[in-house]
Amino acid sequence: MHIEKHRPVRIRAMAGSLLVVLILGASSVRATTVPPLTLSQVVGGAELIAVGAVTAIRERWDLEREAPLTEVTFSVLEVLKGRVGEVLTLQFLGGPTPDGFTLVVAGMPQFAEGDRAVLFSAGNGTEACPLVGWWQGLYRLFYDAGREAFTVANHAGQPVVAIDGDPARMEARVSVEANDEQLVPAMTLDAFRTVVRTALR
Length: 201
Hints:
By secondary structure, the chain is mainly beta. Helix content is 11%, strand content 38%. It is built from three helices and twelve strands. The strands form three sheets. Strands 5-4-3-8-9-10 form a six-stranded antiparallel β-sheet. A four-stranded antiparallel β-sheet has the order 1-2-7-6, with no helix packed on it. Strands 11-12 form a two-stranded antiparallel sheet. A hairpin with a 4-residue loop joins strand 3 and strand 4. The longest helix is centred in the last third of the chain and has 12 residues, at 189-200.
């Protein structure tokens, strides 16, 4: 596969025809178009729903696909849908290439060791992003020492304060003001887990 600096490149080996950009830096210059999904659609589209903590991140070049991949390994703390062992490794398109470039895909979730999250996964190993609706299939967890509980935020770290709608059309409502979470407490993991299980029935 021939790659020119700073020009768009199609990764044909991944499912779909995702347009990505190969760049030297760490920021992306093109948007990734993903249709908006309700929480109900995310739950329904997931092959696996699990609560996990990031234990390792590995970047590698896939010779067969001719593409860089980032493998994020989670210790599985709880499974809400599907089956998985004690460890889950999700494979994301993106990372360093043998030529010294970095492939960055706009909208691709990023992780750091120690992160905790509720993961709604589908197509792991075949899709460019193994989360339903990309960032929409990721809910981050943060520990609230005052409440002695984990609370739920969306992919961008905005606290989820409520789930609106019936089980068929649920949508997560997030805090949009910097201090909104002080007025309306973020939803706890326990409450979020109950909502997901209700949608699964």
